[in-house]
UniProtKB/TrEMBL annotation:
It comes from Quercus rubra (Northern red oak). GO terms for cellular component: plasma membrane; plasmodesma. InterPro entries: ANXUR1/2-like (IPR045272), Kinase-like_dom_sf (IPR011009), Prot_kinase_dom (IPR000719), Ser-Thr/Tyr_kinase_cat_dom (IPR001245). This is Protein kinase domain-containing protein. GO terms for molecular function: ATP binding; transmembrane receptor protein tyrosine kinase activity. SUPFAM superfamilies: Protein kinase-like (PK-like).
């Protein structure tokens, strides 16, 4: 038997979060749209089938992008079939070591007999949301402190202190509407709560991100209305079509 997969022209999300010689980092609105696509995919896995599916290894390397920058979930090698999608039950896992990628695994899945549930993938997605915003790995070694820094803990601390702007990706500085940023950070930090019961459902995450996008689009439209430079460009340009499909304008 031969299995044929759709070719993902734009590769992995991880290729486009960080600036490299091959890729420029994605603009904020495009990052947000990709995150919404992932949220919809996870929501479907958890509620759209007779039995829910737990991905268990969600991270930017396993989020693939097609030619239209639509997100697709990949790498289901260690996924598990859960109970009925209508059930709120968890399944007890007899792990041999930690399954998944370090830094993205929910705390309850670190030990033998841990409970695997839909909230396990919610946690992983929360880490992805923080990485997309900050362009930082979930675990990094601090040269100054000579210790490992956890992005989740750092982001939660900055949120409490009102200093979240200090750790977002420099490429996004001044480009995120404050209202959008506040909602996005609230969603991301709620997803990475230590206790699964304190995390939101994927439908709540999806709706929250869609609202954040609406706020960003409203802010963008308002800024164009009052920007004289933008108005001048619009009145003097003979071609008003802008290709924003890719970050490189291809």
């Amino acid at each position: 038997m031969i299995t044929v997969y759709e070719f993902m022209v734009n590769g992995k999300l991880s290729d486009h979060i960080y600036a490299t010689k091959r890729h420029e980092p994605l603009p904020w609105k495009q990052r947000l749209q990709i995150c919404i696509g992932v949220a919809r995919g996870l929501h479907y896995l958890q509620t759209g089938l007779k039995r829910c599916i737990y991905h268990r290894d969600l991270n930017p390397r396993n989020i693939l992008l097609d030619e239209k920058w639509k997100a697709k979930l990949g790498a289901f090698e260690i996924s598990e079939m859960g109970p009925s999608s209508l059930s709120k039950a968890s399944i007890k896992m007899e792990f041999v070591g930690v399954a998944g990628t370090r830094g993205y695994v929910a705390p309850e899945n670190f030990f033998v007999g841990g409970l695997l549930s839909d909230k396990s993938d919610v946690y992983s997605f929360g880490v992805v949301l923080l990485e997309v915003l900050c362009a930082r790995k979930p675990l990094e070694v601090s040269v100054e402190r000579e210790e490992e820094v956890c992005l989740r803990d750092w982001a939660q601390k900055c949120k409490e202190e009102g200093t979240i702007n200090q750790i977002i990706d420099p490429h996004l500085t001044g480009k995120i509407a404050p209202e959008c940023l506040n909602i996005y950070v609230d969603i991301a930090t709620s997803c990475v709560q230590n206790e699964g019961k304190d995390r939101p459902t994927m439908v709540e995450v999806e709706l929250g991100l869609e609202h954040a996008l609406e706020l960003q689009e409203s802010a963008d439209a308002a800024s164009k209305d009052v920007d004289p430079v933008y108005d001048q460009k619009c009145t003097t340009s003979t071609d008003l079509s802008l290709d924003t499909t890719t970050p490189n304008g291809k």
